[in-house]
Design brief:
247 residues; alpha+beta; L-fuculose-1-phosphate Aldolase; eight-stranded mixed sheet; 8 strands; globular
Length: 247
């Protein structure tokens, strides 16, 4: 179901991603953050509130905030790191309409090993050819604009950032596309970690074939929307009330 009001639609989409992430094992306690620039307002973004588990969040619970840390709409506070990471990326990279930050286990495992990279060894990984940047500096919990600005610079023109000893950031033009990438990034990392556990060498494909396959997958970008709509149907079936729009 599509809603005519773009802000309401944004709230529904961001809630879908948060609840789906909880179902897929990509969330961590009440930590981490998903955000989206408010349609028609470059200075504001929607973000999940502090203290709520992702599986219980509804569209009404999402907070609208500005880049200075002020809550414009919403009854909950926002975790400080959400401002220092998400606000700085939204302001510094207008291409990043959606910013998803998690400590999902398998992708984060790759950030914790020496020279950890997403290797071109599975079809799920090929979609990320030349789309991942790596931030090699860990400086503690992100509690300053300098940390957020450094992450924004490290991301550059890429869509995805792996944060050394920390986690991942996935950006995109829509929630559906960003969440699809987040989901398949974790799947690619999971199979890679499992393959590494055999002690046998990974079988990476050559760059030309990886680039060709990445283009093939990109040509089927509509698959992300189909995936995302299926997640909404599962929520409608299993979690009645998740679409609540009034506090």
């Amino acid at each position: 179901m599509f809603v005519n009001d773009p802000v309401t639609q944004a709230r529904l989409d961001l809630t879908t991603a948060l609840r789906a992430a909880a179902r897929h094992g990509l969330s961590e306690g009440v930590c981490n953050h998903f955000s989206m620039a408010v349609p028609g307002r470059k200075d504001l973004f929607l973000v999940n509130p502090q203290g709520l588990h992702w599986s219980e969040i509804t569209p009404a619970d999402l907070v609208m905030a500005d880049g200075e840390g002020n809550v414009i709409e919403g009854k909950y506070p926002v975790e400080a790191t959400a401002f220092f990471i998400h606000a700085r990326i939204h302001q510094g990279n207008r291409k990043a309409q959606v910013v998803l930050h998690t400590h999902m286990p398998y992708a984060t495992a790759l950030t914790s090993i020496q020279d950890g990279r997403v290797e071109m060894c599975t079809q799920n990984a090929f979609r990320f050819w030349n789309r991942i940047a790596y931030d090699e500096m860990y400086a503690g919990v992100a509690l300053s604009n300098d940390e957020g600005d450094r992450m924004c610079r490290a991301l550059g023109v890429k869509d995805i950032l792996l944060l050394r000893n920390h986690g991942v950031i996935v950006t995109g033009p829509t929630v559906a596309q960003a969440y699809d990438d987040l989901y398949y990034l974790e799947r690619a990392a999971m199979v890679q970690v499992l393959a590494m556990q055999t002690g046998r060498p990974l079988h990476n494909i050559d760059e030309q074939l990886a680039e060709f396959t990445a283009r093939q997958i990109a040509d089927g970008a509509g698959q992300a929307d189909l995936h995302f709509e299926s997640l909404k149907r599962l929520l409608d079936r299993d979690e009645p009330g998740w679409r609540r729009l009034a506090a």
